[in-house]
Fold this protein.
Amino acid sequence: MKKDPQKVRNIGISAHIDAGKTTLTERILYYTNRIHAIHDVKGKDGVGATMDFMELEKERGITITSAATYCEWNNHEINIIDTPGHVDFTIEVERALRVLDGGVLVLCSVGGVQSQSITVDRQMARYKVPCIAFVNKCDRSGANPFKVVEQLKEKLHHNAVAMQIPIGLENDFKGVVDLVKMKAIYFEGQQGEQIKIDEIPAELMEEAENRREELIDAASMFSEELMEAALEGEIPEQLLIDAIRIGTLKRELTPVFMGSAYKNKGVQPLLDAVTWYLPHPGEVQNVALDLENDEKEVILKPDPEAPLVSLAFKLEEGRYGQLTYVRVYQGTLRKGDFIVNSRTGKKVKVGRVVRMHANQMEDIEEIPAGYIGALFGIDCASGDTFTSPGIRYSMTSMHVPEPVISLAIVPEDNKSQQNMSKALSRFAKEDPTFRVRVDHETGDTIISGMGELHLEVYIERMKREYNAIVHTGAPQVAYRETITQKAEFNYTHKKQTGGAGQYGRVAGYLEPFDGEFEFVNKIVGGAIPTEFISSVEKGFRSAMDKGQLLGFPVTGIRVVINDGQAHSVDSSDTAFQAAARGAFKEGFKKAKPAILEPIMKVAVETPSEFQGAVMGTLNQRRGMILGAQDEGDTCVIEAEVPLSEMFGYSTDLRSITQGKAQFTMEFSCYRQVPKTVADELVKKAQEKNKKAA
Amino acid sequence: MKVSQERKQGGIARQKDTDNVIYLRERSIAMLKKDLILRNPLRILGTEETEPLREGEFGAVLAKAGVGKTAFLVQLALSNLLRERNVLHVSLTQPVRKVCLWYEEVFHNISTEYELKNTSELWDTILPHRFIMTFNVDDFSVAKLEERLNDLTEQGIFFPQLVIIDGLPISDESRETLAEMKILAREMGFPIWYAITVKPDDVLESGQIPASVESLSDLFEVLIGLKAAKGRINVMVLKGQADENIEDVFLDPATLLIKNSE
């Protein structure tokens, strides 16, 4: 492995579903000689694209897990993470972005900036990932790459600037004009592998000059030298490239490239751009938290000789055991070294070190700073930090959203039961947004995640990869309970009839609180002895696990205790915990409890003629329509809709729009359920409890 | 028997208890709203009793680019939203998300300015009264707006009581569009406030109508001008009978909030 971090690019390819990222990655691997044949996503040849290696992905034409792979171009080593495009899998996208230094935002030249592109862009902004854009599918009818450039400016507020102009469009799409070199580039040969550089066609000369002017104007904001050169009328190519690079690294300029991955056009110049404009690991500042020093932030040095700091960002169950993808930020991860998991403090020996190429791998000796690789036989959870012995750093915690939907699953038979347990523990380790628990009352196994599709995919994977057939119940929304006003409690727990007695009195009040839970002790004069205060807090906390309306967790409560009583013999930890639970019940009932439900941000893209009908469906589902954005033939309707009302929406939407609309949804916030709906929910919960009894 | 009667009585007593409950949450939101309405410098542009515009009437905020027209109109909208009046905000230049951001930003600034707490609940109560529609300026037509409005009203989704139109280019040819709009506003029964960018050489002085809008001024009942001065943006009445105190208010250039100079 070469060790020049300046020649390394860790990039992610993210986009809206179906914008063609997997196809683009496939072409990149082909041109960089990593694969020797091209397969399509929904391939007729039955092989499928190399990056989509899970059977399920091949079948549905979507990418679910982000496979890491590496390739070489112009003496640069490029590590690519292929990321899923569906919003239910955004944790994968977020994780990928955490370990990347730069991104390629793929946009469809027909569909343009769609709602998922906005989500992906926001994520890139959160991790400050510099990016370049690739307008794909220029061969499709209705292609309009400059409309996409405008949308990048208007919708995503990027300072987008075209680096190329297309030569022909739709069926006539032949190649691109490079506005830096001012040359036409054609892609010849069976797979577009022969690049022919020619003069710009005369009819495009004027447009090319105008667009180059715009490019120079935008780039000269980042280089005085370039501004001077522009005034003199003589612009050296490298000067222009350097200025664009500065703007891109600052995230103040987004160079836009064009092509059609499917038709093998425009991919090689994009690869050049990755090496020219995106940062190498040394140009990105990464910060770790020093666990020994009050979580103080430490800036990491991309120095292979410094102590090791690396992040396990993805786990996979491989044929030979658990495969752990790691990104090394500082130092070098060598085969045979001892490393420490800073979460558990466990020391482990590094066994096999590999470099991944989709589902094939290559054994290597070490992973130096700035590189991405994978380890075998390391037991850890995703998001764990590994360091050299002697330091205890943790990479900043990743933003993990709480799951919003649950599903009860029942295995078909004993064999499935065993396999299901194996699969579930694996999935929960791989994906922090996927949770598993057992409902103690019904004995059901409950899985929770970020959306219907998210859970569906895991059910499918259980069947295919683990041979576990499970039956599912109706999806269940993760409600929360809270209180809406202050209420007092004064509860005595007394059990003094024979045997060891129990006695404890707790008094105070509950009130609404902005966070999850707060416990305030205002007891004076030792009404409750100090040693039992923690028991009282414990009692309140355990009572929060299950509300009295629906049995969902309670949130947003401040408990203040200001009085109480103890008995010199009969008071104990258990007695005060029980008293606190009783006090909570008493106060909760009086505090006008309410149910909170997850609200989803929904964006529907539909042809304009269905706008009214789509708004109607959202309104029927208790949706609050925030707005409607008219974009000529299509429009985007943005709304906030309770998750409980969104089940089966895709079917409804398809039927009223003849399949021409699509929607994305993501969790927005929790909001109080309207009274009529709440009453209905409580009634159902009571009936269910009766049945269970 | 006796026991059940007691229980029954207890039940009645409990019911009575709940009748007397004052729900603090509702009360605090209502108080917060009232407080904001009273403290709002914009109330001189209309309260329940003194709406400056009636159904079918037009008002406009005139200023040069970047002076604060949108911020002014968003505050006007917010003051209506607080009074639970439905506001339709039509933008011809910005996407829905950006318009939402304007509202969030202005609301946030107001909350900070008046040191309000628990504003998220207040925000949740005013949100259902707002609807944002955006169009590409080139594709915009009154017929299209009418079609969209019918979509909303026929299904009972939203009935605007005030419309704000931001980004409509104004020229001599605009008369036809504005006249059609006037008919629509009368038919549907709402007033419209516009944000109009004046030409760089237009003069904005109190009581004077700028040259570029003069030929259309008969269509507007109220015209308000915004002009950047030293350390503040002045608000002036160019046409109409707005409260004379309006000239006491100005826009803070840092937050673009409307403030009272007293």
User: Anything to note?
Assistant: Chain B touches chain A at residues 21, 23-25, 89, 95-97, 99-100, 124, 127-128, 130-136, 139-140, 144, 148, 150-152, 154-158 (CB under 8 Å).
